[in-house]
Amino acid sequence: MSIIEFCSVDQIYHAGTSIQKKSLSAVSFNVEQGEMVAVVGATGSGKSTLVQHINGILLPYKGQVLVKGVATSEKKHRRSLWRMVGLVFQYPENQLFEDTVYKDVAFGPRNLKLPNTEVDRRVRYALKKVGLDYEFIKDESPLNLSGGQKRRVAVAGVLAIEPEILVLDEPTAGLEPRVAIDLLRHLKELQLENNTTVLIVTHNLKEVASMVDRVLVLHQAKVLFSGTPRELYSRYYNLPGSGLALPPALELMLGLEKRGKKVRTDVLTIDEAVAEILKACKK
Ligand SMILES: Nc1ncnc2c1ncn2[C@@H]1O[C@H](COP(=O)(O)OP(=O)(O)OP(=O)(O)O)[C@@H](O)[C@H]1O
Question: Quick check: keyword Nucleotide-binding in the entry (predicted)?
């Protein structure tokens, strides 16, 4: 059984009014336990709408979303769904409201009525997972932190709930590239160490292409493609309107191919591109 199943899901905002808007149309896909999936697509394609179905903030207008085999619409399972699925909204740092980092990260576990020792363990664990030094940062006011630090604290607040499924809507938006890559690296570690299922909504597939197992491309409320990043890039030209940018390593390979060099055109990383260039030089 897949951990997440979307079965022919339609979503309509303001249904039955003159301003109704279909933002998901017959969306079907599965996510396996422990997978890391990127959700990409042009602005307005339905990415945020889609991920808000996973913890039941939005319920399907038609069809079903199942998490561990249970429909998100089942009221009696709501609490366990919220514990299982951690959702990090766009710009989550706007929701930091406590006077210290410690209290902010502890908010979720305290809400779960966990004993203080367990709350403390989780705060330490979550801050470490996002690359922050517990002793250094725990008593700081969130207001005094840099943008990147605030983002990490906000993500730590969700990690402290220890969700089995972690959904992040544009987690690197507005961060400088070095900070963004570091945060993504920590999310990858979390996936690999804890078998956490991770879904990342992003405009920047280039940034995550080498770390995700699968990419889901949305286009005008529909799933246009679901497969590995390599499969996606090898079919890139068949995906008009997806608004995808190529990773620099792949652009380099396509440039070489245009100049008559026989190189692989499914590379994702600079290391792979270097290996191809060295091979081409030897020929
Ligand atoms: N609360 C809402 N009320 C009405 N329409 C909405 C609402 N939220 C989103 N929409 C519409 O649904 C469609 C999908 O929006 P959504 O935010 O899911 O797209 P997205 O792919 O996440 O876009 P972006 O990349 O710009 O964040 C858009 O046309 C949007 O205008």
Answer: yes
